[in-house]
Write a structure and sequence with these properties.
With 472 residues, this protein is of the alpha+beta class. It folds into 4 domains: 138 residues, Beta Polymerase, domain 2 (2-Layer Sandwich), CATH 3.30.460; 85 residues, Hydrophobic Seed Protein (Orthogonal Bundle), CATH 1.10.110.30; 169 residues, no CATH class; 51 residues, no CATH class. 56% of the residues lie in helices and 10% in strands. The chain has 24 helices and 12 strands. The longest helix has 22 residues. It is elongated and about 90 Å long. The termini are far apart. GO terms for molecular function: metal ion binding; nucleotide binding; nucleotidyltransferase activity; RNA binding. One of its GO terms (biological process) is tRNA processing. Keywords: Magnesium, Metal-binding, Nucleotide-binding, Nucleotidyltransferase, RNA-binding, Transferase, tRNA processing. Pfam families: PolyA_pol.
């Protein structure tokens, strides 16, 4: 990276341009932490300078915002690691005014590119109009001004991520300002808000960040009203929201070494969870969100028999997730993926190693989301009751079977749950799933070849179930 920065400084000197490194790179450099994304400001002609710099350094140029002359150059370091340079025009024409408009004081520092590259004591020449160096030294997260929140309410979300990422504490005045302006989150740009939330969800401390946003700042309640109800509804002695956070933390334990899964299986899981949904964001980020929201359907307080309660609240969750998906500008694929995880989060618990029909239907129905559903079920067990060795072994076997491709090629079922419910005038209950499992097992054995034969088998099962006095 240094070679590329030297080339950039050389070009700036030849063109008599003043160029400064700003923001997070300066902050991390002061802490002795390497960073691979560099933000720079140029005092004039930033767009044209960035284009010439990209050509000079053989990088790929991308214009991000023509109004602010905000450009990005994609480069590759000498060791093969990719990194980027973001260049923009100094806001307002003065560097100090530009820095004072930023979010937090620790991000409102700058240093001349030449000083950073050539001065051994470059830290002494850091331009710091808001006192960021001192705040960084004492471990304090402080807003530059209250107006910065009004200009960009997404900074309310960003505060939790920076607090945890940098290991800082809120300045009391800043905490008061953030809480006072929590309602401003309703006016944030949806796409920026979505990007910021998923930056938090990309981290193993996502649950702690969401707790800060809800319990300390009250931001989540203003962002999405059901979060308030999740904090109020108590199930088994625990608020729905608090339980979701514990499930998310349990997921991190399960995905860590030496908990309950083999190293080989963990390696496969991490590779799977790095895959991106709709080519956009990793599965793991969605899985963390699903952990937190998996019981959102319970906020309606649906009263029913315990055997049916879980099924009903999973169905109720779909409407809430659809509303959240709109707030976060999800693609249809992202929305359906999150709905699938949340509305089926307990499904793996109804499979058994000895129950071939249940396993076959589970793998056929959920395909490449099987690992996430199994992990979500495991995390839920760990958070609520703990997971015994037998249950861990059963669920681990599902993961082993998935990665071994044991059920990779399965035929389409000859009948659906909707067809069974409509033909026999039945409500949606767990029993429907049992009928589907029995039919599918019979289909694979060659005993059922079409929907008519499937309905005949279900009729026999219904008659036997009714004679036994069980609900359908």
């Amino acid at each position: 990276m240094r070679t590329k920065l030297l080339a950039l400084a050389d070009l700036a000197q030849k063109e008599q341009k003043e160029i400064y490194i700003v923001g997070g790179f300066v902050r991390d450099a002061l802490r002795g932490i390497p960073s691979w994304d560099v933000d720079l400001v140029v005092t004039e002609e930033a767009e044209q300078f960035a284009k010439r710099a990209a050509w000079r350094m053989r990088g790929e140029y991308e214009m991000l915002d023509s109004q602010s002359q905000y450009s990005r150059i994609f480069l590759v370091a000498s060791d093969g690691r990719p990194f980027s340079l973001d260049l923009t025009l100094v806001h307002g024409g003065k560097l100090e005014d530009d820095l004072k408009r930023r979010d937090f004081t620790v991000n409102a520092m700058a240093v001349s590119l030449n000083n950073y590259l050539h001065a051994p004591d470059w830290q002494e020449s850091v331009i710091d109009p808001c006192g960021g160096k001192e705040d960084l030294h004492v471990g304090r997260l402080r807003l530059t001004t209250e107006e910065c929140i009004l200009r960009d309410p997404v900074r309310l979300f960003r505060s939790a991520r920076f607090l945890l990422r940098l290991g800082l504490q809120f300045c009391p005045d800043t905490l008061a300002v953030l809480k006072k302006n929590a309602g401003q989150i309703r006016y944030a740009q949806k796409m920026k808000l979505s990007m910021e939330l998923f930056q938090l969800l990309a981290q193993p401390y996502a649950a702690d960040g969401m707790k800060i946003l809800q319990d300390e700042l009250d931001v989540l309640t203003h962002f999405f009203a059901p979060f308030a109800r999740m904090n109020q509804v108590i199930v088994e002695g625990e608020a729905v929201f608090a339980h979701g956070l514990e499930v998310c933390r349990a997921l991190e334990k399960i995905l860590g070494e030496n908990y309950c899964l083999t190293s080989e299986l963990l390696h496969k899981l991490h590779a799977h969870l790095r895959q991106k949904v709709a080519g956009n964001r990793p599965r793991l980020s969605f899985l963390r969100l699903a952990c937190i929201l998996h019981d959102i359907g319970k906020v309606d307080g649906v009263q029913c028999e315990r055997a049916k309660q879980s099924f009903n609240h999973e169905i109720a969750a779909e409407a809430y997730i659809g509303s959240l998906a709109q707030r976060l500008c999800f693609t249809q694929e992202e929305e359906m993926y999150l709905i699938r995880l949340i509305c089926n989060h307990s499904r793996p618990l109804y499979t058994r190693e000895v129950d071939l029909g249940a396993n076959l239907r589970f793998f056929r129905q959920f395909g490449d989301t099987v690992p996430e559903l199994v992990l979500l079920s495991m995390a839920n067990l760990v958070a609520r009751h703990g997971m015994d060795a037998m249950r861990c072994r059963e669920l681990s076997c599902l993961l082993d079977d998935y990665f071994a491709g044991k059920y990779a090629t399965l035929p389409e079922p000859v009948i659906s749950a909707r067809e069974i419910m409509e033909f026999f005038n039945l409500p949606p209950t767990r029993a429907i799933g049992k009928y589907l499992e029995a039919v599918y097992a019979a289909q694979l054995e060659g005993r059922v070849k079409n929907s008519g034969e499937a309905l005949s088998l279900v009729s026999i099962l219904l008659e036997a179930r009714n004679k036994g006095g069980e609900d359908t």
